[in-house]
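Page 47, continued from p. 46.
Same chain as before, 481 aa.
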Amino acid sequence: MKIENIINVLNKDNLIKEKNVKNDTISYITYNSKDVKDNTLFICKGFTFKEDYLIDAKKNGATLYVSEKKYDIDMDYIIVSDVRKSMALIAKEFYKLDRPLTKIGITGTKGKTTTVYFIKNILEEHFKTKTAYISTISYYTGKEVKESVNTTPESLDLNRYFKEIEENGLSSVVMEVSSQAEKLNRIYSQNFSYGAFLNIGIDHISKTEHENFDDYLNCKINFLKKCDKVFVYQETDYFDRIKENLPDKNIITFGFDDSCNYVINQIESNNDELSFKVNDKSYKIKIKGVFNCINASCAIAICSEMKISYDEIYNGLYNTIVPGRMEYVKDFICPIIVDYAHNKLSIETLISSLRTEYKNKNFKLVMGLPGDKAKNRRSELASLFDKFSKVYLTMDHPGYEEVEDICNEVISYVNCDTPYEIITDRTCAIDTCMKEAAKDDVILILGKGSEDYQLIKGQKIPYEGDIKVVNKIMEDTYGKN
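Result:
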């Protein structure tokens, strides 16, 4: 690729402050010094970037770097005012698409992954082939399913995925769009055909994420400005503010009020299924939780606007199973539910839904909280203690913090008499809770869903996964599998 093309796209956004470029072309782009090939353009980005990374990149074959800072290294350079915006533009130019790609983006504090899976399965019913998707759990660009690193990938990776989708003959992609994706310019210069806003609750407020709730909400609204068609759950908090900030958008609404474009009604729980209607058309899903009818109605609204048939939407929804979302473990003394719910809004919504299904039951919680980020969740989890008969605090991606310190901070905010136990090993916490279970209990194991690792002091440590741990305990202790 000609370097002149890169300079042109950066100049259009007035990002270049200084440059010294002698070469004419580059063959590859990356921000990872371990992923450098001959004649690579290396992007110096990240809060923890070190000059050593650039030195390593040069040794490995990098010939040009893009950075907000000039380094005393004999190498071609382009100094920019915003390296993340620059990376997004460079990646979009390097992985330039030859034909339009239908992009469907889903944002919200909870429900993004489930909604992505609903839409993915509907599109597969419609196109009779696999559909590209990008979720918190995994992503698929046309060849194989791979594990995700971020909810929304870095802009360089995202544009590469889009190119892979095109090269593999697929015409659309449905993806989660986090608030961080907007804040960190991972979707800078992108346009989405369809965008949905599910809900909003206080989350991801910290020094390394969003400084306050307004920033968090505004990032989600700014994503919607990138969408041609916008879908919003009408009962969400701050609905009026969303409308005010999108005056040029014809917002399509879904929800329970009769004024919505897509009205949810007649929800019924039958065994392992939920049945409901949207605009007098009947649907069924195999995922429990009334709130999942809202996620499904979002998928129905988007796919209906895409002119996908009722039968294809019905079948796509009904055949959807989401790993780590509302997974029920049967044949135990009491119900065990594993779910990814990890913030106040998602936990409150989950409990509210389960209370209608399990009346007069004692709810026990096994859960940990992450280190290094989203520290607002600690006081919020403490405020939910009175909803449980007992809480088992444990590990969940402690990062560079100590698990016991995280748990003790949660306890410092507790203002009720709910008994609790700190068991730092997650498997032991689950085992203890199950051994103490009674037939009138409901056990909730929350926060990790299908995740099979723990992030500890910069290392990705393997973990069996909550469902596998539960099944193993049942087999070893109770002779059931």
